[in-house]
Every structure is written in C-alpha cells, then in structure tokens.
C-alpha cells in the first residue's frame, strides 16, 4: 500500500520487550519531561515482533495502515493517552484505537519528549534538514557536560549558508513535508540569518530562552500572536512558525532506520499518512508593512 514504505531486514523475530529495550536505549525515558507519558501503551512484552512501523500520531487511519501492513509493533511520537482518561471503552475515540490494536496483536509505544531530547532525536533531524548544525540544546546543560553532545529539548547551531529571513522561510517550506498550514515568519524579511535555534513541536515557551541567546532566528511550531509580538518588541530574533506535524514527522524515518540497524531481524518502515489536522488555508491579500500605530 502507498502509505507504508517497508525496508526489508533479516529473518526471524524479536519480542515486544526487546523492541522496547531498543527504543528506550535510543530515547531514554529519563529524558522525558515530567508531564509526559512515554512508554508502552499496549502489548505483551513476550509477544513476537517481526515488523515495526513508525508514525507521528496513532489515529484510526494510522492504526488501520499498521494492521493492513501486517505490523506487530507501532512506534509513535505523540502519546495517545497523554491527557488523562478514566477508561478506554471501545466507544471512546482513544479506546476504539487501543482496542483495535490489542485485538489485532499490535503493540503500541510512544516516544515523545524522550525522543525530542535524545541524540540523535527529533530536534537533530529537524536541524539537519534545515541546514543547521545541531549544537547545544535549549534546555540547561549540567556542569561538566559538553553542550555539543548534551541531551535536551531544541538545538542551536550555525546555518550552512547565510541568507535572509525571506529566503530561509522558503527553504523551510521546501524542505519540510508539505502541509495546508504551510510556513510563516515574523520579523524583518531582509534580516540576515546565520545562527538558528530550533524546537520541534510547540515551542513558544522557549521564546524567553531564545531571546537571551546569540541567534538570528528561531524555528518552531504552534506560535501565538501575543508571545511572538512581545518577543519581537523586546528585541528578540525573527521567528519561523511551521506546522507541528511537519516539524516532527521527519524523525519517523530516523527512528525506523535506527531500529532496523539495531536489530537485523526487524523489518521497519514509516506510515506516510499526513496526520496534520488542518485542511483549509486561505492567505488573503498581502498586507502592507505594519507599524506600531497599526497595532
């Protein structure tokens, strides 16, 4: 099927427990944020696994694609049970998916902020894709640890070729997966970009951190009007806002390759379904440059 690209590996089977161990070696749960819900969502550690598929979200369509492709194990980035529930009956949208996977013998694991912070992880892949050297994280680095190898959310590094914000926004749009949301930028379009901070997924909580760094641009997702406006008014760097899904989906191929390399018995692949929720975008007329009196 078109949605699944499978990379054949060696014969034999692993177990759910062994695949979990590989995932947690690459994306240690200790790196996850305290509010997160990384880990095995469903599955018996003793069950056999020969095919692992990777996706960003576990939607109904993704679960169907995994089952149709004969997967035994589904690795996703976003935890389906991140927000608390009191039950998972089949009548519940989340319960419906969990029940279907259990009935079909498909284990489900979520590597969220553990994969964001790990090296290599989601943020390394995003930085590399945009031509940014994945250097130090945005989160604090413990004393005695080399910032260039430290784990943590986000990455800061030099851009391979200096360019204007307008040109860099074009690059981001060209290199990330296409979405209806697209890419937008805030700040002087002619500002030269040489050093960039990235944070995959929702990153406006890092605007204050980025304002204190020697960077020319911050790339993240889900940015809101007031935090960006206040950041720019305070002298902060220009920002590029991407679709959440687009900034994180490239990690899926990295994770699939990691598993195939770590255990030759596994056949791995990526479910190429766009799970970005936005379906309509109308840009309207291009406005004239705004001034303070226009705000």
Explain what the structure shows.
With 295 residues, the protein is an alpha/beta fold. It folds into two domains: 4-115 and 248-271, Udp-n-acetylmuramoylalanyl-d-glutamate--2,6- Diaminopimelate Ligase, Chain: A, domain 1 (3-Layer(aba) Sandwich), CATH 3.40.1390.30; 119-242, NIF3 (NGG1p interacting factor 3)-like (Udp-n-acetylmuramoylalanyl-d-glutamate--2,6- Diaminopimelate Ligase, Chain: A, domain 1). The protein is built from ten helices and 13 strands. The chain has helices spanning 16-26, 60-68, 93-103, 113-117, 122-129, 165-175, 207-211, 225-233, 244-248, 251-262; strands at residues 4-7, 14-15, 39-42, 48-49, 51-55, 73-76, 107-110, 155-164, 183-186, 192-202, 217-221, 238-242, 267-271. The chain has a six-stranded mixed β-sheet with strand order 1-13-5-6-7-3, sandwiched between helices. Strands 8-10-11-12-9 form a five-stranded mixed β-sheet. The chain is globular. GO terms for molecular function: metal ion binding. Belongs to the GTP cyclohydrolase I type 2/NIF3 family. Homohexamer. Keywords: Metal-binding. This is GTP cyclohydrolase 1 type 2 homolog.
